[in-house]
Amino acid sequence: MIERAEQAGRIKPGDTLVEGTAGNTGIGLALVAQQKGYRLLLVVPDKMSREKIFNLKAMGAEVVLTRSDVAKGHPEYYQDLAKKIAEDTPGAYFINQFGNPDNPAAHAEFTGPEILEQMDGRMDAIVFGCGSSGTMTGLSQFLAKASPATELVLADPVGSILAQYINDGTLSQKSASWMVEGIGEDFLPSISDFSRVKKAYAISDKESFLTARLLLEKEGVLGGSSTGTLLAAALKYCRAQTTPKRVVVFVCDTGNKYLSKQFNDYWMLDNGFIERAQHGDLRDLILRPYAQRDTVVIGPHEPLTVAYQRMKLYDVSQLPVMDDERIVGILDESDLLMHVHADSARFADPVSTAMVSKLEFVDMRTPVAQLMPVFDRGHIAIVMDGPKFLGLITRIDLLNYLRRRVN
Question: How far is CA 37 from CA 12, 33, 362, in A?
Fold first, then answer.
């Protein structure tokens, strides 16, 4: 898309490129812009993984985060916002992957021939996802001539409108939200051509994430969230066949960009995508059980600088202070700040000098409703089984528990 714009005289090195992206297009643009000397500004929905955002920034892109809970036509929708920024920025060029014919042309000219050559010209089906629809449209155009018997199969997140459009011929005006990144749409991109796509599978977030984790476990392939969606759909397609088929599916993103999400057990637990054994008491609300050594703790004699580093490393706001197997205090970030704000040298003080030793113990059999008075007093619930420390429950743990019950 950049080279064709250069050839047409629309851009030259030194200009500003602007695009709205939730997936690999942003990475590709960043690589090319860095090598060719363009300033690149990317508008990204705020549901994207932090690794993906760090990756884009590391390659020199400027990233503008915007809302992921609004649909096309809203001024904060990532594509509409990118277009507006390009219009308001002197000398800027809007890449417009969703309406740029050079997007599918690249796949018709290069991706399709490469795949068919590697498959020795024999390919019964290909499974893909759609974001801008450039890959799908380009492959469809190429395969219509080069391998017309190849079936095109869409993998779509539950909540996107595309699977229903393919399977039922109904174009819904209302989409729902999904957590898989980079694929699924709430409208038909202007460059899309679904005429040769006859089958689509709607895949839930949970199945997508678990399938991606299974791919790593079984095959040693570290794929991202949309890879999980595509593989789940490919498996459904293959299991529905009565004769052997040669089926291509893409590992279209790397799981390195999703380590804090689908490969993070705590994030998966928070969102109800993996399950722990349920007890019917407060143990069900503890995200990091102490008995499993999941609780991040600190000793009373360790320096506060270690406590600070541990909070940062594990992204927690409070640490139980453990003396052997006995909880003797809680240190949270406000306690730490109050202790060191006037003299940073006090980071060297032991944890016992800053911790709170007046603790709010809650028996594991306590009704969930009785947690609210604990939080109203500004405390954290320390869950006990007699003298045995089980773990902590914070406000966000209670919120996550209540949300999972809605699901």
Answer: 9, 6, 60
**Topology of domain 102-258, CATH:** Rossmann fold (3.40.50)
Q: Where are the domains of the chain?
A: 2-94, 102-258, 276-406
Residues 276-406, CATH architecture: Roll (3.10)
Its CATH class, for the domain covering 2-94, is alpha beta
Which tokens is 266 given?
């705590």
Long-range CB contact pairs, 400-403, < 8 A, 24+: 400/270, 400/287, 401/284, 401/285, 401/368, 403/272
- HSE (CB half, 13 Å, CA atoms) of 135? 21
- Residues 242-298 have pLDDT tens digits of 999 999 999 998 999 999 999 999 889 888 898 888 899 999 999 889 988 888 999
pLDDT band with cut points at 50, 70 and 90 for residue 22: confident
CB burial string 112-136: b at 16+ within 10 A, e below? beebbeebeeebbbbbbbbbbbbbb
- Give the whole-angstrom CA distance, residue 157 versus residue 169: 17
What's the pLDDT tens digit per position in 89-143? 998 999 999 999 999 999 999 999 999 999 999 999 999 999 999 999 999 999 9
What is the rounded distance in angstroms from the CA atom of residue 282 to the CA atom of residue 126?
A: 47
2-94 and 102-258 agree in CATH topology: yes
State the pLDDT at residue 407.
Answer: 59
How far apart (Å, rounded) are the C-alpha atoms in residues 209 and 194?
Answer: 26
For range 230-247, the mean pLDDT = 97
Reported residue count of the chain is 407
Are 140 and 237 in contact by the 8 Å Cβ rule? The answer is no
Give the pTM.
0.83
